[in-house]
Design a protein that fits this description.
Largest sheet: 8 strands, mixed
Number of strands: 14
Number of helices: 15
Order of helices and strands: HHHEHHEHEHEEHEHEHEEHHHEEHEEEH
Shape: globular
Helix content: 40-55%
Distance between the termini: 40 Å
Radius of gyration: 21 Å
Structural class: alpha/beta
Bound molecules: pyridoxal-5'-phosphate
Length: 402
């Protein structure tokens, strides 16, 4: 209490930017705090399954990195990222039809930093960004630092509805389109090929860059791969990815793939924040990829997540009452639930926590705060028994409040 009071006085005495004082902390972090209490089955986080982290392999790779590169892997390094990692990522992009050289790649401290750098580079206060409705809450948080406004576009099972995209671009002239084309966080929806082509065409006509935030594309466990939007749109698209969901988020390695002239600007912007991303983490990721371990790790993750998704979907079919709808994603970490319109997922959350099960209600993912009746469920981070038990508790709670 004392500390809180002192903080308040200090922020008043010291002239902290009013805008930063008004920023809200992520509601998801708050919910995570509650849901990490002992005994709570949590579908709230976006965490990969910790038991799948390749701890032993990483021990070997870390030792190999230290033996091979010695002090160099602990030294300051270039802002753009170490060359061997950029080469490796460029080759992987080429394999999925994206012409890429190491100069197209900027290594970042997670995809989150890439989003922040893009926001800082493009936005003046009041500028618009076109997003899916709902969208990744961490992107909203980053863009909010730069006082962005939003032109959200509704989705169906094929992703953003393109008539609305054209309308919104014409009306609000957004600085960029931000999309999560694969297994979107929060809905699990993947944009269809046709929509990707349409989005590229519309954005090319309006000269609006597309930022495709793609942490989940490699975690497809069903269905057909959809052509990467950067393979369709080339330099019109800046694509972001990360090792967080395929390897381990604690390494904090993500990257951008964009046109060289833009990457040069983003590099300067990033430099002002952290000089460069952890050299040691970069070498570890490089060796992990180079030794073929990443592809094996991805193949290890997929059947586990598929099983968890299937278990969750089956439990939902078994126990959720009539009138509730949900997505059935073919990959990624999340699915999305729509309760009947009159129900509030936010109001039901404390009751769910009483029943020792947690989710994230949907509202924070909507740039304009709608979606009262929606919620996101993460299936990667609970056990199979936990999934069945947690969904059973939620089914009862929803049935009692229909
Ligand atoms: C869509 C999306 N973008 C970016 C991130 C952040 O990823 P990173 O850990 O690489 O910063 C996440 C993490 O949940 C995400 O879901």
């Amino acid at each position: 209490m004392l500390i809180e009071q002192e903080d308040k006085v200090r922020t008043e005495l010291w002239r902290v930017s009013q805008h930063m004082l008004e920023l809200k902390s992520s509601i998801i972090r708050e919910i995570l705090k509650i849901s990490s209490q002992p005994g709570v089955i949590s579908f709230a986080g976006g965490l990969p399954a910790p038991e799948l982290f390749p701890v032993e392999e990483l021990k070997e790779v870390a030792a190999h990195v230290l033996d091979t590169y010695g002090p160099n892997c602990l030294q300051y390094s270039v802002s753009r990222g170490i060359v061997p990692l950029r080469e490796e990522l460029a080759q992987r992009a080429e394999k999925i039809g994206i012409p890429t050289t190491p100069n197209n790649i900027l290594i970042c401290s997670g995809a989150q930093q890439a989003i922040e750098v893009i926001g800082r580079t493009f936005l003046e206060p009041g500028d618009y960004i076109l997003t899916e409705n709902p969208t990744y809450v961490g992107a909203l948080q980053a863009f909010n630092c730069y006082q962005a406004r939003y032109a959200p576009v509704e989705m169906d099972e094929e992703g953003m509805i393109m008539d609305q995209v054209a309308e919104q671009i014409e009306r609000y002239k957004p600085k960029l389109v931000y999309t999560v084309t694969n297994f979107q966080n929060p809905t699990g929806i993947t944009m269809s090929l046709k929509r990707r082509e349409q989005l590229v065409e519309i954005c090319s006509n309006f000269n609006t860059p597309i930022v495709d935030d793609n942490p989940y594309g490699q975690i497809r466990f069903d269905g057909e791969e959809v052509r990467d939007i950067k393979a369709i749109g080339g330099d019109q698209v800046i694509s972001l990815s990360t090792f967080s969901k395929t390897l381990a988020p604690g390494l904090r390695i993500g990257w951008m793939n964009g046109a060289e002239d833009m990457i040069a600007i983003f590099e300067k912007v990033k430099q002002s924040t952290d000089l460069h991303t952890s050299t040691f983490s970069q070498f570890i990721c490089y060796e992990f990829v180079h030794q073929g371990k990443l592809d094996r790790q991805i193949e290890r993750i997929k059947p586990d997540y598929r099983r968890k998704r299937d278990t969750m979907l089956q439990a939902m079919r078994d126990v959720f009452p009539e009138g509730i709808k949900w997505t059935e994603p073919e990959g990624g970490l999340f699915l999305w639930v729509e309760l009947p319109k009159h129900m509030s997922a936010k109001d039901l959350l404390p009751k769910a926590i009483d029943l020792k099960v947690a989710y994230v209600y949907g509202q924070p993912f909507f740039p304009k705060g709608d979606g009262e009746n929606t919620l996101r469920l993460n299936f990667s981070n609970a056990t199979l028994e936990g999934i069945v038990e947690g969904i059973t508790r939620l089914g009862k709670l929803f049935a009692e409040n229909m």
